[in-house]
Q: What sequence folds into this?
């Protein structure tokens, strides 16, 4: 069965990353900070250490 939590996190990250690229948002913006948080959550969920 598909891991819906993992898919939701990945989907949100892809959407935010596309928005950041489109708008040219710099580091430190709320969107970029959320991407960093999503990366951490994804790593924890997969059982890998976060950077």
A:
């Amino acid at each position: 069965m598909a891991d819906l939590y993992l898919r939701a996190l990945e989907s949100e990250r892809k959407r935010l990353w596309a928005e950041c690229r489109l708008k040219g948002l710099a580091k430190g913006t709320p969107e970029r900070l959320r991407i960093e948080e999503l990366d951490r959550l994804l790593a924890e969920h997969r059982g890998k250490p976060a950077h």
